[in-house]
């Protein structure tokens, strides 16, 4: 059997590293004024249009300059670059009456002024109201909570409750890390972001379950090993699988990131972050949580025994010592105690 790497011994370093990374995301969230929410989570207009390639070749920087008067908006190029298709998202202004009609007319006017009348084709135009965006945000939170609860139930049933809690805390760590990256680098927060978080949660829990399953197998094989050695051995044995699986998926997502655009590109970017972070948390976060939680439970149990029995001995230890103490008694003492 290969020598086990002491992952548990380095737990405080990686816990501190995780806290630092998530804290950086919180600072970025505050400094940037929150997430860069998409139209799906804030009221506004989402319009897709095409600039006729036969009329002239247009770069996205020119389109962005032409629409600068719109105020707070987001512009993305989609599809094949030669088709010159773009999506503009304009945040709604509550002070403007009939926002959708006015904004649609204003966008068309600005584009035709810059690129010529008749060269603009509006392919779709959708307005998302405040009520719909609030409902979508509520549904997103509900989906995440349901997923976490189901994972907790499964892990607790398959292993022990402490393993279920460790898996859930690990998933919470993964989600917070991805949200921290989105807040720090102003990645647009859209339903695609939620899909990426849910995908990484499923990916990460799979790796975590593999390690916990190996721990369960090794518990019967390494009966004399303490918990730290048991966890280190199990992580070391599954380390090769974790690296190979993560690398394979990572390379596939890189291709998607390079070739895609728009929301799919953002999805691929978050997936790249999540794959790396999911493998990291599976190795350096989940098992240390099990170790520290179990150690804390043992300390509480010993403290209760000390308070109850006065010598820190468990009841079975005191019962084992009773025959020895009885044999040490003088014969007359044993006769006096006999019924």
Compile the SSE list and pairings:
Blueprint: H1 11-31, E1 36-37, E2 44-51, H2 60-66, E3 73-78, E4 85-91, H3 99-115, E5 120-128, H4 130-158, H5 161-184, E6 188-189, H6 191-221, H7 227-259, H8 262-309, H9 315-327, H10 331-337
Parallel strand pairs: 1-6
Antiparallel strand pairs: 2-4, 2-5, 3-4
Q: What's a concise summary of this model?
A:
This protein has 339 residues and is an alpha+beta fold. 68% of the residues lie in helices and 10% in strands. It is built from ten helices and six strands.
Task: Explain what the structure shows.
It is a single chain. This protein is elongated. A four-stranded antiparallel β-sheet has the order 3-4-2-5. Mean pLDDT is 82; it is low at 322-330 and 332-339. Helix 1 crosses helix 5 (161-184) and helix 5 (161-184) packs antiparallel against helix 6. It starts with 10 loop residues before the first helix and ends with a helix. The protein has two domains: 8-36 and 133-299, Up-down Bundle (Multidrug efflux transporter AcrB transmembrane fold), CATH 1.20.1640.10; 44-128, Alpha-Beta Plaits. It has helices spanning 11-31, 60-66, 99-115, 130-158, 161-184, 191-221, 227-259, 262-309, 315-327, 331-337; strands at residues 36-37, 44-51, 73-78, 85-91, 120-128, 188-189. Helices cover 68% and strands 10% of the residues. A hairpin with a 6-residue loop joins strand 3 and strand 4. By secondary structure, it is of the alpha+beta class. The relative contact order is 0.12.
From the N-terminal CA to the C-terminal CA, the straight-line distance is 58 Å
Helix content: 55-70%
> Largest sheet at a glance?
4 strands, antiparallel
* Shape assignment: elongated
Percentage of residues in DSSP E strands: 5-15%
State the CATH class of the largest domain. Mainly Alpha
- The neighbouring-strand order within the major sheet is 3-4-2-5
The number of distinct β-strands equals 6
Q: What's the CATH H-level homologous superfamily of the largest domain?
A: Multidrug efflux transporter AcrB transmembrane domain
User: Oligomeric state of the chains?
Assistant: single chain
Low-confidence stretches: 322-330, 332-339
From the 3D structure, determine the CATH topology of the largest domain.
Multidrug efflux transporter AcrB transmembrane fold
Mean pLDDT: 82
Gyration radius over CA: 30 Å
Following the backbone from N to C, one meets helices and strands in this order, namely HEEHEEHEHHEHHHHH
Number of helices: 10
The CATH architecture term of the largest domain is Up-down Bundle
Structural class label: alpha+beta
Number of domains: 2
